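Now for my pick.
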Amino acid sequence: MDLGRPRASSHPAGEQGHALLAVPLALITIVTVVDILAPPEVHLGPFLVAAPAITASFAGPWTTAAVGAVAVVAQGVTAVVRSSLTDLNHTFQIVSLILISVIVTLFAHLREVHEKELIQLRSVAETAQQVVLRPLPERIGPLRLASVYLAAEAEAQIGGDLYAVARTALGTRVIIGDVRGKGLEAVGDAALVLGAFRASAHQEADLSDLVAYLDGSVAPDPAAPRVSDGEPGDPGEGFVTAAVLDLPDQERALHLINCGHPPPLLFRGTRVTALEVEHPAPPLGLAGLVDGRATAQTFPLAPGDIVLLYTDGVMEARDRNGTFYPLTERAAAWTGADPHALLEYLRDDLLGHAAGGVLGDDAAMVALQRLGPL
C-alpha cells in the first residue's frame, strides 16, 4: 500500500495570485492620489515603477505588462491634473516608467519560461520514478506491507530512492536503497538496481550471492570512457546504499545485509530497536574496493513484529533551527500495531518537523509486519 506522494508548491495558486495583484494596484492608487494632492514641488511619480516590479515577482509577463500600462495611465492622469502631458518633468517620468515596465515584463517572461522548463523536467523525472517504483502489495506471503514516498520541495531535484519486494519459493526478499546523486541519472541508476533485484531475487539462493549480483549491476564498467588524463573514472563516483532482507516463511527470523544504509528499526511491543549488523558491507558498486563477501546477519522476527525501512532523507529532514529529525525517538512514541498506521504517523510527524512542511531531499519508508503464528 502506497500512502501517497505529497508535494508542496512554492508558487502562488490562482486565488493567491489574484490577491497579491491587489498590492501593486493599491500602490498605484495611493501614489496617484497623494501625488495629485501634494504641493507642486513634490513629485511622487517615480514610486510608480515599484508596481510592475512587484508584479513581476509573482505574475506572468501579460499581467506585469498590464500593471505597467495602468501605472503609465495613472502617471498621465497625474500629469494632466497637475500641469500637462508636455511638461518636461512628467514626460521624463512617463518615458522612464514605460522603459522600466518593458524591462520587468521581459524578466517576467524569462522567469516564466525557466519555470516551465523546470516543471517539465520535474514531471519527466517524476513519471520515470513512478514507473521504476512500482506500488508494493498490501500482503505478500505472511507479511503485511505499507510504503510511503515523500517528494522533496518543488525546486529540489528528484532523488534516487528505491524499494521493492520479490516473492521466492522459500519466502520474501525486500530491498530499500538510495542512489548517490539526483535527477534523471539517479532515477536511471535506481532502475538498474531494481531491475537486477527483480531478475535475481528468486534465482540466487544465498543472500550474499544476491548482493554480489546487485553490486555488479552498479559497479563501473571497465570499458567505460576514460577521463582526460587517460585514467579510468573514479570507482567511487556512483554507488547505492541499500539494505537487503530475506524473510523466510518457515523461520521466525529475518536475514539482513546492510550495504552502508541506515539500520532498519524493529518494533516489538513498546520497544524500538535498531537492527545494527556487526559487519556492514560497502555500498553497492564499491564492493571491489574491499576484500571478502558480504555476509548476512540474522535477527529474530516474531509474529506481530514490525520492521521499518527508510532512506536517509527521513533522518536528514531539518526543522527551522537546523535540528535533524529524531526518527528513533519519534518512532518510540508510537503505540499502534499496524504498519499502515505507523507510516501515516511518521509521515505526518516528519512533515510537521520539516521547516515549512517541505523536505530538502526525497524520503522513502517501507514498513513490513510478520503475521500470525507459523
In short: The longest strand covers residues 171-182. Residues 5-13, 226-236 have pLDDT under 50 and may be disordered. The two ends are 24 Å apart (CA to CA). Residues 88-132 form the longest helix (45 residues).
